[in-house]
Amino acid sequence: MKIELDLERFDNFLENKRWPFLISGPCSAETEEQMLSTAKELRKIEKVSAFRAGIWKPRTRPGSFEGVGEIGLKWLQLVKQETGFRTATEVASAAHVELCLKYDVDVLWVGARSSANPFSVQEIADAVRGTDIIVLVKNPINPDLQLWIGALERINKAGIKKLGAIHRGFSAYGENVFRNPPLWSLPIELKRLCPALPIICDPSHITGNRDLIPFMAQKALDLNMDGLMIESHIQPSVALSDAHQQITPLILSKLISDLVLRDPHLPNDKRSELDELRSQIDEIDETIIQKISERMKISQKIGELKHNMNVTVLQVSRWQQILEGRIALGKAMGLSGEFMEQYLDAIHQESIRIQEDILNKL
Ligand code: PEP
Ligand code: MN
């Protein structure tokens, strides 16, 4: 992953003397009064760095509120004049970018639906080329890290160095307690690949439920995310979009003061104890991998034998026997049945793959 950043200016720009970054404001701009009253209340919260509002809303079904359009940018500009907030909004096309530049918006973000579409991202990238604007890229709605990275790279290649990512969770099939489950391994892997890239967590869109936002915000900070984007509305119950997940500025203020900022570094005296425990884990993992590989080699021999005897790769009764016995053994040793099933299933898939490979080669 090749990303060139110039974050010093990004930090100064968001006045980020007070880690983490906090961006707040309504899901959607609705009226001038709603924008100004929300912003004035938010201004009382010292830690909020920028004011967000959606101007064009990407709705799942047509017919719901689709945003106020250009007039909302005028209100955003008014917010900036009256409160001094940096302003932020979502763009989905070159025309949106041009209008945002006209109304002096400070931060643009690429929404989750757009970042799933390289054509849209490229159009936005071409439109921001030559400007010095901050761009944040939300994760695509589907859990595809390469797509997220690709979107960041496209914007970066257009010369945008004040770049960040927003983690807003991923669409899930079926019932889930979260609107967009966080799948933390993806933002964590992004951080591992590009440690300098700021990642801002959006607990509003992850949870879709205002009661769960404090929990998710704390979790994000505990996982070293660099900031939060939280939707707020002067009167959430009558909001025209995402009413369930918006909170009042007053509640936001309490949420922020309850957040615990933990030190990502361990004190020196604890380090050697931790290193020791980690090296034990490393050794055990090496042994497990070694043993699994030995097991697979035996599977391979069984595969050859089965082929010579002309029997099928899978014998259901043998598999059933393994499942029952091993699950009982795992449970007796304190492992959950669910974990044992997933583990055995993975082992089984791999061993079938190896045995089928033999058949294909013969
Ligand atoms: C939003 O921030 O209001 C929004 C529509 O977000 P997302 O692209 O994450 O759905
Ligand atoms: Mn929203």
Could you walk me through the main structural features you see in this protein, from its secondary elements to its overall organization?
This protein has 362 residues and is α/β, with parallel strands linked by helices. It is built from 14 helices and eight strands. Strand 2, helix 3 and strand 3 form a beta-alpha-beta unit. The mean pLDDT is 91. Phosphoenolpyruvate (PEP) binds next to loops.
Condensed summary:
Helix content is 52%, strand content 10%.
Lateral strand order in the biggest sheet: 1-2-3-4-5-6-7-8
The overall strand count is: 8
The topology string of helices and strands comes to HEHEHEHEHHEHEHEHHEHHHH
Give the distinct bound molecules. phosphoenolpyruvate, manganese (II) ion
Give the mean pLDDT.
91
Beta-strand level of the residues, as a percent range?
5-15%
Anisotropy-based shape: elongated
Indicate the radius of gyration in whole angstroms.
Answer: 25 Å
Structural class: alpha/beta
How many helices does DSSP assign? 14
N→C terminal distance: 40 Å
Low-confidence stretches: none
This entry's quaternary arrangement is single chain
- Mind describing the biggest β-sheet? 8 strands, parallel, barrel
Key traits:
single chain, 362 residues, alpha/beta, eight-stranded parallel barrel, 10% strand, elongated, binds phosphoenolpyruvate, binds manganese (II) ion
Topology of helices and strands:
Elements: H1 7-13, E1 21-25, H2 32-43, E2 50-52, H3 70-83, E3 86-91, H4 94-102, E4 107-110, H5 112-115, H6 118-128, E5 134-138, H7 145-157, E6 163-167, H8 185-193, E7 199-201, H9 203-207, H10 213-222, E8 227-231, H11 249-258, H12 268-309, H13 316-332, H14 337-361
Parallel strand pairs: 1-2, 1-8, 2-3, 3-4, 4-5, 5-6, 6-7, 7-8
Bound molecules: phosphoenolpyruvate and manganese (II) ion.
